[in-house]
Amino acid sequence: MHGRVKVRTTEEEKARKEKERQEKLKIFKHAMQKIFHKRKESELDKELLELTGKVLSSNPDIYTLWNIRREILIIFAKTYESEELSQLYDAELNLTEYCLKINPKSYCAWHQREWVLTTRTDPNWEIELGLCSKYLKFDERNFHTWDYRRFVVSQCKPPLKDEFDFTTEKLLDNFSNYSAWHYRSKMLVELFPDLEGGRPIEDSHHKHELKMVQSAAFTDPDDTSAWFYQRWLLGAVRMDVQVVVYVMTPSKTTVAFSKPVDQSVVDSRTRLFHNNELLNGEWQSCSGNHYDVLWIFKSNAVVSEEVKLEFQMEDGHLQALPSIKMNETKYVGKSSISFKRKYSKPVVEELNNQLESCRQLLAMEPDNKWTLLTTTVFLHCIDAKKYHKEVLENLRTLKVIDKLRAGYYSDLITQWSVEDQLVTDYATDSLDYKIKFDEKIISLPHFQYYSHCENVDLSNQDLDSSVLPALVMLQHCKTLSLENNKLTTLNKFPQLNIEELNLRGNKRLLVEEVEQFKKNNKNCTIIF
Amino acid sequence: MDDDLPTDFQVIVVGTGMVESIVAAACSRIGKNVLHLDSSDHYGGLWASYNFDGLQKFIKEVNSDPKRQLQVYNLAEKWYIEKASAEESKAEGEEKPEDGKGEPAKKVWTQDSFAAEYRKFNIDMTPKLLFSRGPLVELLISSNIARYAEFRCVTRVLTWLSDKLMPVPCSRADVFATEAVGIVEKRQLMKMLTSIVGYNEEEMNNEFKDWNDKTFKEYLTHKGLTPNLIHYVLSAIAGGTNSMPCLEGVKECKKFLMSLGRYGNTPFLWPMYGSGELPQCFCRLCAVFGGVYCLNRPIDKVQTKTADDGKTVVTIDSKSKTLNCDHLVIGINECPKDLISPEPAESCDISKAVFITNGSIMKSDKEPLTLLRFPPLTDEDNAVTVLEVGPATGSCPKGLFVVYFITNKVKDAESDLMPIAEKIFDMSGGDQTADTEKPKCLWSLFYNVKDTSAPVASTVDSVHVCSGPDAGLDFDRAVEQAEQIFKKICPGQEFLPRAPDPEEIVFEDDVTHGPEFQREDEDAEGDAPKE
Amino acid sequence: MAKTYDYLFKLLLIGDSGVGKTSILFRFSEDAFNISFISTIGIDFKIRTIDLDGKKVKLQIWDTAGQERFRTITTAYYRGSMGIMLVYDVTNEKSFENIKNWIRNIEENASADVEKMILGNKCDLEAKRQVSKERGEQLAVEYQIKFIETSAKDSLNVESAFYTLARDIKAKMEKKQKEASNPAGARSGGHQLRNEPQRKPTSWLSRCSLL
After folding, report:
1. Under an 8 Å CB criterion, which residues of B touch A?
2. A345-416 architecture in CATH?
3. pTM, whole model, 2 decimals?
4. What is the ipTM of this complex?
5. Which ranges of C5-52 would DSSP assign to H, the alpha helix?
6. CA dihedral (C156, C158, C163, C164) positive or negative
7. Which CATH architecture has domain B166-258?
8. Which one of A511-525, B270-284, C17-31 scores highest in mean pLDDT?
């Protein structure tokens, strides 16, 4: 017998386990039956609390049972003494904590916890914060815990700096953590805004974050969480909403903004003058939303002379925009525009440093898509105009070496090419719009900037039918060419007063549909 | 009491060092009748950990009776602190203010206060680390022996670069966090490490086909790494020197990198309370499966005789008793000379040192556990492995650190190691409360150990000699040798199969069980509630 | 790998061979008694989870694996233990006298704040008794340790002995936690190695790819 220990054979063990399982299942079924019976009979008492607790402690995700418990606790709250109630709530917290040990991603258990803390009169938020830290130690990427932590922080309001430092600590452990980067971005703008420069983030912190995220990006370029944060940081610049163009004709007055604005902003801060007299009227967004880039001014006024627009900007400055008389009845006012990102000087310096590192790396591994993409983004952010050619060249290379994201690169090409052309176009008084670069566009970014145009030529591009709703910006358009694109349907074509529409060369567009479209738009000459 | 000791065993193991203990456990585990003896009163032999009192006894023994500890020589102990402080002999309440607010004033240690807290020391004769995915960790887990031990993660790997200590960025998190290397270097380093881990055998052969007779350093240089990065990869990660062959460097790097991310930020684990715990864990398993233990039991004579059935029996005389066994497994330091054939020819002895200091060699927020691979100072020197452990490992009282130095001997332990000690410690003694840049050395011990790590054949088939500790970083060679010896004794048998968990064991005459499901026994997993 | 208990206590049984340590262990963990457990082969430790004031306390009770026979208990056996049952046999004078030696052994090897308790086992064998209950009590007073006479065979006081020890450990632990400034980060011992790492494998290659 020496040293021979008897161990159940696998068969025996299986049978034993099965028996045990059956036994437990029986008990489980019995308990569930009893629970629902009691609930039906409205016996919301301590026994039911105990029963549901027992079942939950091995099955934390039966949310009905949590509901029952809340029902019971709500009833108890009406009659019990505060001390006893407090004990019940403590027990509830213990139960959720126990359940979270079994399943740290249990929606119901986290929710129950939140409910208890917001319901009871004596919540202890410090303990909750400690609990979050503990659970994030087990799994620093559990977004349930991060969500709950944000909730707790919103209640107990610990020093924001502590929370910021907490994300630093977690990221140093493992920077593949969307939740932590995201949480960090939220706090960054609150903790360190650039009050003087009016930028979202103060220089030194902006620089520090850029450094940190580049370190992550180059430690593991295949980790996408860092890239997202980097893009967010690069986009964290001052962006003032302004009016880019407005058009006044006897039949229609439109105002286009650089970014979508709210109805109230338009109502209260945008004013049109005729001969220095304020015009009365109503604003309507051209798409019917509360939030839009293009707004229509409904007024009975007939204008024949000098028209002017004033817009009260966010920072209090007044944007005053005179107009040019284009013909007898049409007045157009255009602001000067720029897509250059307004970084502070130190941040630009940092970006230039980082660009330099990227170039060095690129010399070592020319085919590395991450390095190439980052280089490209830096180039664009630092001086889009100056580097435009290089940027496009890089994006074309990326489309080849990183086929998986070819669509994304095409998008960037479209957007940045359109921006580049826009600046030139705005320097003229032309009412024509035609794509003047070789790349084919696939979308219509910044299209409200062309809302004043009468002749719009979008021929020979790669536009499909998904862009059609954007055509609503063409409120003053007379001739529109969509020749040689990839339209498949006209379903979403907006109501416009176009006189001539060219649809030729859209091979997959059905004749029947075009015929029907003709019938519905009798005033328009349709070429197909 | 010893009279109870049975006399006939299948396997007798003499010596409780690492190899002997693993063999004892493996034999007992598969049902062999095992007796395990040791001539001294504690476990571990040359692999032992001592508390401060035990260590003093050991030192005394080596100095007064060199014959008992033949392997250890050139032993020199030195104090850098007073015997007793004047005030302390008066003030009995020597308990320091336990974790009070802020940094309490540094304690002034005396030889007497060491003695008073002697139990809190666990000082290793053979300090070693485990690779998180190395053979010993895998063996501990697969055999279920892991439950007898606890470990701490090594928190950092340091190196000596440009005349100062530097943390080595060795994990993804480290590379991200470090400010010591530039962004371009980060990319280079990660690329190098990632490719070494990622190569499959074919890619490996392809990449390295022309590097057979070149050094690892040449390879790294060829790959365009900066001198800093070469130092990190070669010296700190691969643990090599300029002459390290390329393929060996790649192998060592891979071993290091493969062990990352399992338990902590570095690839290494340190056994709580010292390396001396590990042989004991194997002994425990041996005992659980019926092995009989007897310490303080020197053996006098080993003979063989042929039994009536023609089998060879090994007989051992010990304390006027004759013990018989089929196989004798014996540690080299307990082994009579005539059983060894032939004596290992050339070997390189080991220089070792232990220091007790009043602070870490490099300050850190949380208590650090450090591996420092100190590159050779001159061309004649060898690289030195430095391990620094603190109170959290159970190695010493609060406020102290124990630091081990290990290297291959050139001259003698003190000459080999003192120059490095002087670089990282303040060896001048004096005021302990002074805020010095380097920690004060309070006590030191230098010694040489004979290298007994080479496998040794015995003159008799049924006698198996176990090697002593090597100078390497890990236990891998001991595990390998133990398995070889086991395979010789028990051919065809499984080496340390998983020991059952207590709840899996059934007993011969299972009687009067309580009702099965009355108790909250959550160990049996299930998806239903308990009544 | 969900941890489904609030506390885990490591307890040890210590005492001379044959005093009934294994029987006590089986009485408590299996509610069984078998006279034929002469040696303790294969028994490492047993587990029982008990309920103490609403907390689930998992007791991991370790047996000596026979290493007490020649006083060769490994120092590793004592590591991390929070409570120790010192067992003697009331029908064996020598085993009672040896309790003092075992206490010395504990002081040498176990942590200084380990909770201890003395058990005088086999109190059902009144006819063979060599150690009176008073002597047991006296010894306990001398060392300021709790004492109780038990019978694993008759299931007398075994249950309450373990509950008492567990309750004392829990009280001490909670007091310590309260004193410690950060309740969440109560310092733990080392890691126990498991097949699956405690954390998900955040190997340095691990990442998430979504883009």
Report:
1. 28-33, 172-173, 175-177, 182-184, 186-188, 190-191, 224, 289-291, 500, 504-508, 516-517, 524, 526-531
2. Alpha Horseshoe (1.25)
3. 0.81
4. 0.88
5. 21-30
6. positive
7. Orthogonal Bundle (1.10)
8. B270-284
